[in-house]
Structure formats: structure tokens, C-alpha cells
Amino acid sequence: MTRKKPILFSRREFATKSGMMVAARVVPPRLCAAPLRMVAQSATPPSTTHAPPVLDPGKLKRYVDPLPIPQVVRPAAKRPSPTNPKAEFAYYRMTMGEFASRVHRDLPPTRQWGFNGASPGPIIEVRSGDGVLVEWINNLPQRHLFTIDHNLHGAERDKADVRAVVHLHGAKAPPESDGYPEAWFVPGKSAVCHYPNRQDACMLWYHDHAMGINRLNIYAGLLGPYIVRDETEESFGLPRGEREIPLVLCDRAFTTEGQLSYEVSPDPAAPWVPEIYGNATLVNGKLFPYLEVEPALYRFRVLNGSNAQSFNLSLSNGQTIAQIGTDQGLLPAPVAAKIVSVAPGERVDLAIDFSSVAGEEIVLRTAQIEEIMQFRVAHGTAAPGGSLPAKLRPVVAIPESAAARTRELTLREYKSPKGESMTMLLGGKHWDMPVTETPTLDTVEIWSLINLTEDVHPIHLHLVRFQILDRRPFDQFLYFKTGELRYIGAPIPPAPAESGWKDTASAHPQMVTRIIARFEGYAGRYVWHCHILEHEDNEMMRPYEVLPAAAESRT
Question: Which of 194, 198, 196, 197 is nearest to 176 (CA)?
Fold first, then answer.
């Protein structure tokens, strides 16, 4: 397929010409030196004339529904290991299907898609080193909940409207089990994936990854938590059982009839929009839920499952939150903060001590004072076990000298020569162009992410965990003109909350974000992409290939 050279343009120009003003997280140049974990939230864009009336969540009575806690799913059976017939693995059956449930007491049931009849789906809980098999079963209806843009690559009219493939985000999995975007399957079909779980304790998450409609499938509800445990983590005596609670956050918009509303462009020929921001936040599938807690230390495993929205979380009483972990496990030590930021695709592991606020009601809110849930602290004395260790899991830095290669990769926005649509590219290349990132198995590389856009892009690499080295401002205008990368400021080290192992990192505007990773585990074809799902679905995703150790890198 021959593609014409795309033309660079700004998001404001696109929004003005299309008649559609979609809010974007814009960081002016003068703010680049501000604390980098504070990602500003965007207001919900106005509805188009093509969308039904949107529910005003402010009119709903708050804190009338208890917080649902996803249940731990049990294996259905034992099956032989795909690599060792003498060994048996736990075998899970996870069914994708449509269901209806109330997201609030005063709303009618909402049609959603989910796993095993719930969204978020149930928790898959495993031990590090114990492999499992999961059969992902597509029992979805033949018609999609939302409008499909057939102009997007991978969503052409010759493709089935409803299709899915599941990616276990953050897993070190063989390529055939990674959820490759083109490996989708239609209703009535299934796929069995092998997850070896040879990685440190952490919270992963499973979600749809079908090419061209991923944003729609996840918005419909196809996501859920996956927790890996190990002895090292358990040795720290962190809260467990009823005091360890997953919080899956997703911003959504609803019609006045309580149904999910996904905004589309006024142009019926190209309904894709650059980002989707809802005006209501689901917490474990509920609007404004409450949670009854004891005056004790609790652990909250937070996932941002939104399409585009970042959250800056705080407590209404100004209390400090301790962040103890990030995407790929525990931090070296707890990090105390009044505000904790989490971008789409990221996870944060938080500890909140309620021992000094017995009998109080505390609200978890965003930086814009939006209330999302309430903690009702019981009366009584503090429960035992209410302190965190001063040190957690050590994180050994990968030395830059270990890198076999450094790659400079651009994040950039384009429109077609006809001006009818927008494309976002990584490294200036479309999805279906030849693979250019080909690290060799068990080697280390540094990837310099050069952000030429006005957005913060949460960049996710499949297969590997990585460390953030630094972020550094550069002369963007010079780069556009000559391709020369000239820095205009000193490197900014990652914030303490980013000092652990990551699989998703925020690349800030007019900055070069450097990450370092060891490409270990498996050779084969994987992907890297922006985790703003509307960007990912419109070409901001590229395949990369890990070559066998005996092979030489092609580029």
C-alpha cells in the first residue's frame, strides 16, 4: 500500500476546521519545568448535535451505592503445560459478553460489555512463576454498541464489526499469547493464552486490543485486574484480604437514560475523534460509591482504565497518601504525597491510613475537586498493623553503559493531503510499514521519545518493563526545520513515584523522555503504542520485533 506523505498540523487547527472542539491536555512551553507527574485534567468536550443528551452526574445523589469489589475468579480445571506435557497449569475460562447492570441506584440498567458478566471483570490472581492458561471466549453480540469509523486502519468495512483479542497489559508473555492487535477473533470463537508469570509481584490488567476498535471495546467495558503475588512482597506485611482493594477508575459519559454515550465527529464519514473525556467517573463500575473501612491501614490497587483521562487523586481532608508501588511492582520505599497522578494504562499501589480519622467521612477526589467515591471510617480505636516499612523492594538501576543501542523515536500528529482526517504516528511510520525497531533478545536499549505534539502521551511497550531515565526540553521548532535535536535545558530526573519498574510512561510535550529496557523473555513480534486509546486506534501504534540472540539487529 502506497501512502502519500502526511502534512503536519496542530490539534487546534484540526478542531477548528472540523467544527469539533475536543479538549486536549495542553502544557504550554513555560510549564515544562513544572512537576512532571501533575498531568492536568481536561474538561469534557461539548456534545455534538449527533449525540443524545448527556447525563449530568451532578444531579445524582452521591454515596448511595456500596463499592463493588471484583471477585477472584477460580480456575475451571487443570490443563497440560504447552511447553511441558508432564506439568499441569491452572486453566481459566473468561467469557466476553453483553450484560446490563446499574451504575447508580437511580439509573436504569446500563448495557455494557464485560468478562464473566461484569465490568471490570473478575480478578485473576496468580503466583509468580506459576504459569496459567486462560481461554478468552468471545460471546459478544453481532452488533457493536458504538459507531465504527471504517476509515481507520484495521477497521475497514470488510472486517467484522464485533471482534476482540485480549492483551494482558504488563505481562512477560510469549508473542502468540500477547494479544497482537491483528489476532482478533469474532463472536463464537475463542483463543487460549499461556501466561508464565515469571515476573515480580505487581498488578497487571487484561483488556481488549483489537485493531481499529480497541477504544470502543474498552469503553464498552472489556477490562479487568490481574494480580501477581510473590514471597518477597508478602514479607513486608502489607494489608491483605478485606484491607487490600482494587480500584478500577474509568471516566465515561452517559445518556439521560443511563446508557453509555461515546461521542463522534459531526462528519458522518469520519466519526473518529482525537480523545474522549467523560463527565462521570466509574469506580469498580459504580458512580459515587462508598466504602466502609476500619480505622486502619488499607492498600488500594488503582488502575486507570480510561480512554484518555488522567487522574490526579487526593483526599478531601488533605491527608497524605503513601504510594508504595507502580506499574510493575513495589517502589524502593513509600512515597508520601498529597496528590497522586495516574495516566491511562498506569497502575499505582497506594496505602491510606485511616487510624487517625475514626468516625469520619472522607472523599477521594480528583485535582479538579470532582468527587468520585467516599470512605466511611468506622468508630473505634486504631486496628493493629497500621504502619508501612521504611524500605520496600530494591530497584537496581540499569546502567546506561549497558545499552547496545539508543533509538530516537518521534511522537507526531498529521493529516492527510485531502484534510479529511487526522493521523498520529510513532517514528513517522504507519502500522503496516516495515518493522524498524528490532532489539536483540537479552540486550538493553535506550528509547528517546521525542514528543512533537501538544499532548501528554502515555507510551506502553509490550513484553518488557523499563525504567525512566529522564525528561529534557528541546528546541521543537529547530527539530521541525532541520531534524536536529538540540536540548534547551537540563535533564529532569523521574519523580520518586516513577522510580520503580514501569511499563507505561508519560511523554510530555516539547520534551524528550528517555526510557531504558532489557528486552528479555521471548523473541517475536510485539507492539508499542500510545495508551490514549483514540490515538492508538488511529496509527499511534507500531509493531516491534525481538530478534533471537543469535541474530543481528536489522536496523
Answer: 194
| Residue 228 CB neighbour total at 10 angstroms | 25
**pTM, full prediction:** 0.91
Cβ neighbors of 502 (< 8 A, separation 6 or more) are 326, 327, 328, 465, 466, 467, 468, 515
The radius of gyration of the chain's CA atoms, rounded to the nearest angstrom, is: 22
CA gap 486, 158 in Å, rounded:
45
34-46 pLDDT, tens digit per residue, is 222 333 333 333 3
Helix intervals (H) in 156-289: 214-220, 231-234
CB 283, CB 372: distance < 8 Å: yes
Quickly count helices (H) and strands (E) in the chain: 5, 32
Question: Comparing C-alpha atoms, which of 12, 265, 2 is closest to residue 148?
Answer: 265
CA distance 300 to 151: 40
**554 is written with which cell numbers?**
536489522
Residue with C-alpha cell 455534538?
48
Cα atoms in the 13 Å half-sphere on the side-chain side of 158: 2
Q: Could you tell me if 268 and 306 are in contact, meaning their C-beta atoms sit under 8 angstroms apart?
A: no
Query: What's the CA gap between 506 and 456, in Å, rounded?
Result: 6
The domains found in the chain, sorted by start residue, are: 400-546 (2.60.40.420)
* Segment 346-389, tens digit of pLDDT: 999 999 999 999 999 999 999 767 999 999 999 988 777 678 99
